[in-house]
Amino acid sequence: MPAPSLADQDIRCSFCSKPKTAVAKVIAGAGVYICNECVGLCAEILAAQSIEAPEIPYTESMTDEQILEFLPRIAEVGAQVEDNLKVWVQRARDRGVTWARIGAALGMTRQSAWGRFSGEE
Predict the structure, then answer these.
(1) pTM score > 0.85 for this model?
(2) Structural domain contains residue 48
(3) Which residues make up the binding site for Zn(2+) (predicted)?
């Protein structure tokens, strides 16, 4: 079965988790996406920073409840990246790329690549 087109994929911003249908634009990266709203927020943050911006200790300043609330969002992004990887592997297979080459590119054996991405048992 051929890889799904971008139009058929459930693409969400990797930062805010909004679906592509809820934002004006989504920019694709290597297995991740960012929406125009998050880009705008990043631009505001960068514009407001002084030359020596301190590092923000994210988890150190969060309560246990905040960390637990954040975990599903991280899991969702991880699942999206995994789904995107499967699509890219399928695109390579659609072009006739062997499981050996795919495995080598991912630092795994041919058998491991086939087992993880073929959809067969």
Answers:
(1) no
(2) yes
(3) 13, 16, 35, 38
